[in-house]
Design goal:
It is a single chain. This protein has 549 residues and is an alpha+beta fold. Helices cover 37% and strands 13% of the residues. The chain contains 17 helices and 16 strands. The strands form four sheets. Strands 1-7-8-9-6-5-2-3-4 form a nine-stranded mixed β-sheet, sandwiched between helices. A three-stranded antiparallel β-sheet has the order 12-15-16, with no helix packed on it. Strands 10-11 form a two-stranded antiparallel sheet. The chain is elongated and about 100 Å long.
């Protein structure tokens, strides 16, 4: 069926017909059936009115081909208060933003459950192996452990133990100073988030996520506590973990997400009756945003005319790419068109269109018509549908999340426990969201500098000297940097046990006495850049000027 532009305009703009769009077929028929009168005249008038309304309703439920210049469907009025829901201190304390999500409550839970799990495991597998000895972890130690994990996303090495290597070709002094390798691996081994003894699969809301659920649930709530602007892109994300994410369009803030667990995937009970899996996911993710005039942007994994009708019932607009194989897509949209040509069909507030560029691009929108706009490209000016231009613009939010998580991947591949991989992914998302908030509050630092500052401030606030690796004998392999740059002697920093600590001199330890034994001489001074203790004279000068020692 074809309709001219005047007919489409009258359908989409009339108040009665808008009600038809939002309520759907069965509800409208029920309301018409119950609107009769006791008098015959009133009944006949009602029947006539009902037939007319049904005629209009059937027109709305039929796809009408539209031409260039047809008016675009009006967007729902936006009725939401937007912006951050907290007040910052006004300075550049980046740790404040990070700890809005990874707060003391979560750290305390991780600390308690890690200690509990270590005790349960060692009690069950009692051995005399010294590697099975466990010292209770503290909240500060967990903070430092997370700082090391974040640093590993910046400094990438093929093996975990290489972070603590003394080989001058790969050495990174930060890691042994932060925590010993043995302690780090011990914490990672016993890292846990729930009490296994209290788990009941019959009552748990998501048995497949039970080991990470105490972290997953409160973190999602924290993400949703922040309100944002009107356009929200929705897209699948894959990071070894299949995730459905709802993000803010411009900044990429992750407002909500669902972790895919097969049949056990968390779906809101209000939408379990829906037939389309994609509709269940979209409605569950956006439940708290429905009826407020938001506009969802989604790719063709989700989009369909049926889902658009459902969202319109909740006063929520939508646009995005569309698969031609979806149900209720008009047959006319499947015909071949020439490059640069665009065709479209409208049904009430829903418009579907196909545009031919290098290949066919199909879209669905409740706020666009098929009008085009000239844009600058590498090959020169080109006309594109406005729906395509705005889709590319708003989906950039999700793309920014994808790019960021790909650039700074936390070490999820090392380890077999699925719930630990999910935890590191959640830590990734919390880092990203905190960075977005920091930028929204006027922060000027890049994502990389922000991460480094999180690590630096965490170390300054939570690190203690006993976390560091114990000092052994000076390395026999000397770094080449000792002969270049400017080096100055300093006192070795005090520890909790010693106010004036000493270490074995790196030069004296290479000298042997008359009996052939190494000389052991302690020094109060060291070179911080080379991380070696040295006597002030002459060892400091010899170490930094003589090539072959």
């Amino acid at each position: 069926m074809e309709c001219d532009s005047d007919d489409v305009s009258s359908i989409s703009n009339s108040e009665d017909d808008e009600e038809f769009e939002l309520t759907g077929g069965s509800n409208m028929e029920n309301s018409l059936e119950t609107s009769g009168s006791d008098s015959e005249d009133e009944a006949s008038d009602s029947d006539a009115s009902s037939e007319g309304n049904n005629e209009d309703f059937q027109t709305i439920r039929t796809w009408c081909e539209i031409k260039d210049g047809s008016p675009a469907p009006p967007a729902f009025p936006f009725a939401e208060n937007i912006g951050a829901s907290f007040t910052t201190f006004g300075d550049e304390d980046v740790l404040f933003f990070f700890e809005k999500f990874i707060d003391d409550t979560l750290i305390t839970l991780i600390t308690e459950e890690t200690n509990r799990y270590a005790q349960q495991t060692l009690a069950t597998n009692a051995t005399n192996n010294t590697t099975d000895k466990w010292t209770a972890v503290t909240a500060d130690e967990i903070r430092v452990f997370l700082a090391i994990i974040i640093m590993q996303s910046v400094v990438k090495k093929p093996e975990m133990k290489m972070y603590w290597s003394k080989n001058p070709l790969v050495t990174t002094p930060f890691f042994p100073k932060a925590m010993s390798c043995k302690r780090f691996e011990s914490i990672k081994r016993f890292l846990h988030f729930t009490n296994n003894e209290t788990y009941n699969p019959d009552t748990h809301p998501n048995p497949k996520l039970n080991k990470i659920f105490p972290i997953y649930e409160p973190l999602v709530k924290k993400f949703r506590a922040i309100g944002w602007i009107q356009y929200i892109p929705l897209k699948r994300a894959r990071f070894g973990i299949k995730t459905y994410m709802l993000c803010e369009s411009k900044s990429g803030y992750v407002w909500n997400f669902i972790i895919y667990t097969g049949q056990g995937t968390i779906i809101d009970p209000d939408f379990l009756h829906l037939n389309l899996v994609s509709a269940k996911v979209v409605m569950s993710l956006s439940k708290e945003l429905l009826g407020k005039g938001y506009c969802l942007t989604m790719d063709n994994f989700y989009n369909s005319p049926q889902l658009a009708d459902l969202l319109l019932q909740h006063k929520t607009d939508v646009y995005g790419t569309l698969k031609l194989q979806r149900k209720e897509v008009p047959e006319g949209l499947r015909r071949k068109i020439q490059r640069g040509e665009i065709i479209g069909y409208q049904r009430g507030k829903v418009t579907v269109m196909k545009w031919r560029d290098k290949k066919d691009v199909c879209l669905l929108s409740t706020v666009h018509n098929i009008d085009t706009q000239e844009v600058a490209t590498k090959s020169g000016p080109k006309r594109k549908p406005k729906a395509v231009i705005q889709y590319n613009d708003t989906m950039g939010g999700v793309d920014r999340v994808d790019q960021h998580l790909a650039d700074y991947v936390l070490p999820r591949k090392r380890g077999k426990k699925y719930y630990k991989k999910i935890f590191f992914h959640l830590l990734d998302l919390a880092l990203w969201n905190s960075f977005v908030l920091y930028k929204m509050e006027g922060g000027k630092k890049s994502a990389l500098t922000y991460r480094l500052d999180i690590v630096k401030l965490s170390m300054e606030k939570y690190h203690k000297m006993e976390f560091s690796a114990k000092r052994g004998r000076p390395s026999t392999v000397l770094p080449s940097s000792r002969l270049t740059g400017r080096h100055f002697p300093e006192y070795i920093p005090a520890t909790e046990k010693k106010a004036n600590p000493t270490r074995q001199c790196g030069i004296c330890s290479r000298v042997r006495d008359a009996r052939g034994k190494k000389i052991r001489r302690e020094s109060r001074y060291w070179c911080p850049d080379c991380d070696v203790a040295l006597c002030v004279t002459p060892c400091f000068r010899v170490y930094h000027t003589v090539a072959n020692i």
